[in-house]
Amino acid sequence: MGSYANGSTRADDDPPSVEKLKEPAIPLKTMPLHANAWLNDMKISSPTAIRVNIGNNVAFDPIYRAWTKKYPSALNAFEKIVAYGKGKKIALFLDYDGTLSPIVDEPDHAVMSDQMREVVRSAALHLPTAIISGRSCDKVFDFNKEMKIFQAASEFLPMIDEVFRLLVDKVRGIDGAKVENNKFCVSVHYRNVNEKDWPLVARCTDDVLKAYPRLRLCHGRKVLEVRPVIDWNKGKAVEFLLDSLGLADSDKVLPIYIGDDRTDEDAFKVLREDKRGFGILVSSVPKESHALYSLVDPPEVMDFLKRLVKWKEEEEET
User: Fold this and answer.
1) Closest by CA position to 272, among listed 8, 28, 3, 2
2) Which listed residue, of 10, 44, 66, 97, carries a Cα 20 to 30 Å from 244's Cα?
3) Active site annotation includes 169
4) Rounded CA gap, 138 and 145, in Å?
5) Per-residue confidence at 48, pLDDT binned at 50, 70, 90?
6) In what order do the strands lie in the sheet with 278-282?
């Protein structure tokens, strides 16, 4: 799996320091249950990909090239990132879909390659590492069958199962629509749905959720996610895990979160506001983010993790 340069940002370009971070222009929020409002957010959350000129070191897309000036490549800025982490414990948080696995038309086919799996295993041997995903654990990892799992919404499981069955039946007639039960949320995928039918997907989902005030809707990349109404998101998950690991109140810790989706923005925002870590957005499409750095795709994520592991091994030897 080869990788390619993320824009044309030079290795000696100075990314903004943690202390000088500013809020990006677009805040994240959960949308109300109104099908018309959903359609607009479905389009915002699922932008049309802007083709990047891969393999050509000169003719990069000018819009993407300008974007990487604001969100420099984490590969090009690697030395600066690890220099900031020198003498600190790096805590690594990873999204799954679109970060460790490719975005594919069929969600069930979104699996890590053997090579990526080995790289993540290696990272976990050297660094506190967690995967934060909306997928159920059995769909993400089989590394440790005895792993203790924190479950924030167990009481909602019967309701989630019920809504899953209703949505499967509701969207059955929409070509390309797929409903997935992720245990603690239900995902309505419209990646393979003709855009003219997106309003129908929104309307069907809205019709089901009207009867469930304890559930809310979140937008991801060509997916509607039905979640319990609890004060919980990926930012809260990062805070919880740091606290559980005894790393929350230490200035000797550098959290790094890598993710590609709108749902990862809560984690990026937590690290940005606390001025204690870095968010790395995985995207080949220019978009506003709370992240500080960027990577193009999962192959670049793998390259970054490999370099991080090698750096950590060399640090441990000294």
Assistant:
1) 28
2) 97
3) no
4) 9
5) low
6) 129-131, 89-94, 253-259, 278-282, 293-295
Output the CA torsion sign for 8, 13, 15, 16.
negative
What whole-number distance in Å separates Cα of residue 132 and Cα of residue 172? 30
Structural domain that includes position 194: 154-228
- Identify the band that residue 55 occupies on the pLDDT scale cut at 50, 70 and 90: very low
User: Which of 95, 260, 297, 303 is an active site residue?
Assistant: 95
Pairing of strands 278-282, 253-259: parallel
Count of positions (residues) in the chain: 318
Task: Please indicate, yes or no, whether the overall pTM of this predicted structure exceeds 0.70.
Answer: no
User: Helix, strand, coil % (nearest 5) of the chain?
Assistant: 40, 15, 45
Distance between first and last Cα of the chain: 31
pLDDT at 251: 82
Q: Is 318 helix (H, G, I), strand (E, B) or coil?
A: coil
Domain boundary among 207, 228, 249: 228
Give dist(CA 224, CA 201) in Å, integer.
9
Interior CA angle at 45 toward 99 and 137, to 5°? 40
Are 173 and 219 in a shared domain? yes
Question: What is the CB-side half-sphere exposure of residue 206 using CA atoms within 13 A?
Answer: 15
Q: Are residues 213 and 241 in the same domain?
A: no
Query: Which of these three, 228, 247, 272, is where a domain ends?
Result: 228
